[in-house]
Amino acid sequence: LSEPRQVEAYGVKGHEKQKRLSSTSEQPPFFAVLSSNTHDKIEDIPSKAQALEQLSERIASLNTDEETLDYFEKLTESCRHLSEGSEFKLAERILWTYLPGIEAIAKLSFQNHARVASIVSQSYLLAASLAGQHNNLMKRLQFSENALLYGKVANDRNLQIAAMKQLATTLDLQGHTNEVLQAYQQTIPFLNEISPLLQSLIYSGISGTYAQLKQRQEAIRYLALAYESFPADPEKDLSFSFANGSYCALIFCDGLTHLDFHEPHKAEQIFAQIDGLHPKIQIAKKVRIDLLNCQVATYIELNEMEQACIYLEEAANVAIIIGSERRFQESFTLLQQMQKVWPHELRIKQLEALFRS
Question: How far apart are CA 268 and CA 353, in angstroms?
């Protein structure tokens, strides 16, 4: 893989409406509406403090024995699970307690070098995702590049392609659609070397990018490949722990592609297969917010104000609960679109109170 350009868009793609979600100049006072129970609670829980103390001791030892490496692998996995719920700030704090130390081990030790580099690469992939929660694209870019570097050190093609996917989504957030396509095209020669889940996510990303470029035939072709490649049991896939994607990614790609081609009725049917308001499968809270926001954009295009309001209110509330500033801002930008479409409706003014309280 060639070196990435120095430049979440979402893991699948950034629909042209979604592109505007984080570009607005006016922003609501997010932290003013954060409920107190969403703040970092680690100081109030002695067991967690003890765990962090034990963690510091392991890092200080600079050990690369199997037991220590098992510990850090499980810790990274635990942080990933925390980040998918309402504890992403706790995940962030734990991650940055050990990541500098394990990276130092990777630089200084030759014992189990590939395995240590793999842990560092996976940790940076998670760090990139967490940076996206704060809408910090430069940090997301930096951590994705670090993940790519250590993926190369580990000689792990799955980690390398996962890092390239993170880089592509960062470019997508920045609105550089042509460069997103170039980033994805760099992965194509290696698709036969990676896991089915990661293949599927790359195909869906390529499909979404072609949809933004209004190349319908290519968008449909790669979407079909994404569905075809998706594994029957994704949790057993080699890349599951760090691929940052699930079957929801295909639903997002499919629905947003129809929105890109101004087919909101078809998009509505596709998103309803999961549905953000009453999810039909288990999904992470951050993914649920993304789905809700996509459905809001669909209802705006369908001119269905009440449905748009119901889904937007839920999206904003969940974003507040998990403490995701970026997703809250995306919901707020959708509200601004709704204010333009329905400027005099009382229901819209009631929603404004949610974002201003």
Answer: 27
What is the C-alpha separation between 259 and 16, in angstroms, rounded? Answer: 9
User: Average model confidence (pLDDT) for the chain?
Assistant: 84
Instruction: Tally Cβ neighbours within 10 Å of residue 147.
Output: 27
208 and 257 Cβ atoms separated by less than 8 Å: yes
pLDDT value for 174 = 84
Task: Name residue 353's amino acid.
Answer: A
Residues 6+ apart with CB under 8 A from 39: 89, 323
72: its two tokens: 């850090």
Contact 302, 262 (CB under 8 A): no
Enter the pTM of the model.
Answer: 0.80
Residue 215, Ramachandran bin (φ over 0: left; ψ between -120 and 50: alpha; else beta): beta
Please give the pLDDT value at position 284.
87
Mind listing the pLDDT tens digit for each residue in 265-308? 999 999 999 999 999 998 988 899 999 999 999 999 999 999 99
Residue 322's pLDDT band, with cuts at 50, 70 and 90, is: confident
Cα–Cα distance for residue pair 25/18, rounded to 1 Å: 15
Query: In the block, which residue shows the tokens 């129970």?
Result: 37
d(C-alpha 22, C-alpha 270), whole Å:
24
Q: What is the CA radius of gyration of the chain?
A: 20
Query: Which residue type sits at 294?
Result: C
For 208-269, the DSSP string reads HHHHHTT-HHHHHHHHHHHHHHS-SSGGGSTTTTTS---HHHHHHHHHHHHHHTT-HHHHHH
Residue 100 parent element (H or E): helix 88-108
Angle at 50 between CA 44 and CA 51, to 5 degrees: 105
At 2 the three-state DSSP class reads coil
Using left for φ > 0, alpha for ψ between -120 and 50, and beta otherwise, residue 275 falls in: left
- Please name the amino acid found at residue 229: S
The two tokens of residue 227 are 């569905």
Q: What is the dihedral of CA 17, 19, 20, 23, to 10 degrees?
A: 170
d(CA 37, CA 242) in angstroms, rounded, equals 28
